[in-house]
Amino acid sequence: MAPTVFEELTALANRHSAINLGQGFPDSDGPGELRAVAQEAIGLGIDEGGLNQYAPGTGLPEFRVAVSEHHRRFYGRELDPESEVLATTGATEGIAAAILALVSPGDRVVTLSPFYDSYAAMIGLAGGSHATIPLRWPDFQPRVEDIAAAIAPGTRLVVVNTPHNPTGSVVATEALEAIVRRCREVGARILSDEVYEHLVFEGAHVPVASLPGAGAITLTAGSAGKSFSLTGWKVGWLTGPPELITAARAVKQFLTYSSGGPFQRAVARGLGFDRQFFLAGAARLQEQSRCLGDALTSIGFEVNRPAAGYFLIADARPLGVADARELAYRLPESLGVAAIPVTAFVHPGAREDYASLLRFAFCKRPDVLAEAAERLRRLP
Ligand code: PMP
Ligand code: GLN
């Protein structure tokens, strides 16, 4: 397997001291209160009593209760913390465990396209075949006929991602319902990646598992990285019916066995924060998205305004650029800015449809976004 596009472009950005609007991580620390809880949990300054040995394989009980409470508070659904929640090392491990648990060699797995890169890698490692439902500029919504065609009889698993990386779309509820109906028709399970659940600026987040008929067939991946600007902590979770959680847990035993206890304790505190905390985070990101979008528009990009998440997509074609990948690998050195070509998130056969598109991360401080825009003014 080759290094990921994030590895490559972050290394290039670092080598040229470029502003990294490629990899999606915030450039400010998460809440001090949570960092203090983590510090206390490792027992800093005391001789004994830190949470420094293996946490239970399914996660600290207080963490699983917090995930369940959070779910009830925001989505009105009850999850049994004992049997329906699994702590994971970031959503990445949850995705890996779910795919390895549910997919056997030769199985058909369907994702939206563009797709987050780890889905394709894990489907490949599981020996599955990877089919896609295309999302097209400008709304990046799945179409009913594409859903029906992709989720063919024999499909084992459908990976949904809403809010969506890299397009920033919130998948329409009708499309999600169509996916669930089709999965039930063909007997497929669903893995719903909802790591951007709290970063929605337009519309509202609808958990796939809350839709009619979905609860019994859906595993949902969540992450503290995005909601709390703590991407480096790698605290995630899977939720779903006991049968599917047990299957994912069986795999997790041999991926990591268990995930770090101190950060779980801190995230458990964060999951209890009031609604205002999460709304304020989304409002800040929306403003950053607007600023970067306006700047890129004034430079000459055609900008797609995202409804959620960390990223916006900009078309470089109006600037005379047909190959955004070539531009992306040149930009860190030439102008001191990094962005990701959208072709990194599609199969080779679909690259042409996304060839001139770049993904920019706007989860950065306003002064950093302004400086990046200043540098990009020298394009093409
Ligand atoms: N899914 C999506 C859609 C993502 O964008 C990311 C990256 N942030 C992940 C999963 C991985 O999340 P984590 O960092 O919690 O492993
Ligand atoms: N999820 C982040 C992104 O899409 C970073 C993930 C990674 O570096 N693997 O940019």
Automatic annotation (TrEMBL):
<dbReference type="InterPro" id="IPR015424">
    <property type="entry name" value="PyrdxlP-dep_Trfase"/>
</dbReference>
<keyword id="KW-0663">Pyridoxal phosphate</keyword>
<keyword id="KW-0808">Transferase</keyword>
<dbReference type="InterPro" id="IPR004839">
    <property type="entry name" value="Aminotransferase_I/II_large"/>
</dbReference>
<dbReference type="InterPro" id="IPR015422">
    <property type="entry name" value="PyrdxlP-dep_Trfase_small"/>
</dbReference>
<dbReference type="Pfam" id="PF00155">
    <property type="entry name" value="Aminotran_1_2"/>
</dbReference>
<dbReference type="InterPro" id="IPR015421">
    <property type="entry name" value="PyrdxlP-dep_Trfase_major"/>
</dbReference>
<dbReference type="GO" id="GO:0008483">
    <property type="term" value="F:transaminase activity"/>
</dbReference>
<feature type="domain" description="Aminotransferase class I/classII large">
    <location>
        <begin position="19"/>
        <end position="376"/>
    </location>
</feature>
<dbReference type="InterPro" id="IPR051326">
    <property type="entry name" value="Kynurenine-oxoglutarate_AT"/>
</dbReference>
<protein>
    <submittedName>
        <fullName>Aminotransferase class I/II-fold pyridoxal phosphate-dependent enzyme</fullName>
    </submittedName>
</protein>
<keyword id="KW-0032">Aminotransferase</keyword>
